[in-house]
Amino acid sequence: MATAVYNASAHARGSTTAPSTRTLPRVFILSLQRRKFQEDHSQVFSGLIRNASINIIHDTDTAAATLSASPSLGDVVLVADGAILQHAHTALLYKLIHFAHEGATVVLAMDFYAELTPANARTFFGRWGLPWDAGDYLRTTFVLNPMSLPSPLSASALQPDYSMKAVVLKGVPRAAAVYLPGNDSHIESHVFAPTPIRGAEAQMTPAAFARVGRGYLGYVGDVNGEQGSTRLTIEMCGVKIRPGDMGCRRYVSSCSFRNGVVADEQITEEAEIPLPSAAETVQRAAPREDMYTYGSGVAMLGYLSVVDRDID
């Protein structure tokens, strides 16, 4: 079947009661390559299916037909992989850009990062009219933009800070950055030294959100599906969730290879992490005045394939 359609009113929490009459956000999940994202990103899927009407699109013909129509108010396209970056899908990309300009929100998340490289990022984002570009690939602790969040995102729906391994973006205006390195952020690695994040690297962001025409474009570069990134992806989609809606996170905590093939892997379950209460105080990054560029010694590590993304 080319397109799988789920209606959150009928499936939310497995309820047998009559569906709510409230209007649910409509989310089109564009997954031209990845057909297992319900497993790999189960928290995103769980949070959305309980609170939105979901259309999962796996083929280009259905995608083209969907994007050729005028979007309804609140329509979202969640791009779940990097197929749209391929030259073969250039025509579909322009339909996606037009869909956003007409009022839809497009969110590049989940496994989109896997095909975003310095060789294609500038051209791709340039077609959206944005100066964004691919930056480093690293893990550090990021905090919510201390100046302000891009509208209409709400800080109350997001984790104030968390450790994330991500393909970060450079060239993103401060007002469009959702998360940034904090004052104490440093490289978190089992291989590289804990070098402080300074200079130009302190301006790179793993997540951005900006106005495009009458709509929006969002980017989440997390490669491991951290729970903070799951909440951000859902928030970018304009979907409001309740405690327990995401469920537990399942991820590969260790694996072994034999002849270049995964021979064994350990799956770990992590309970849903609640948001901090309003009474809790969280240290936020102070505005940074990076007038000089400091060499941090962070190397471009390349980009992990999906199979080994969860191993630090």
How is this structure best described in words?
With 312 residues, the protein is of the alpha/beta class. The protein has one domain. It is 17% helix and 27% strand. The chain contains seven helices and twelve strands. Strands 1-3-2-4-5-10-9 form a seven-stranded mixed β-sheet, with helices on both faces. A hairpin with a 2-residue loop joins strand 11 (249-258) and strand 12. It is globular, with a radius of gyration of 19 Å.
Q: How many domain modules?
A: 1
Kindly state the number of beta strands.
Answer: 12
Sheet with the most strands?
Answer: 7 strands, mixed
Shape annotation: globular
Summed up, the helix count is: 7
Percentage beta strand: 25-35%
Identify low-pLDDT runs. 1-21, 281-311
Biggest sheet, strands in spatial order? 1-3-2-4-5-10-9
Mean pLDDT: 84
- Approximate helicity band: 10-25%
Distance between the termini: 36 Å
Derived from helix and strand composition plus strand pairing, the structural class reads alpha/beta
Rg of Cα set: 19 Å
In sequence order, what are the helices and strands, one letter per element? EHEHHEHEHEHEEEEEHEE
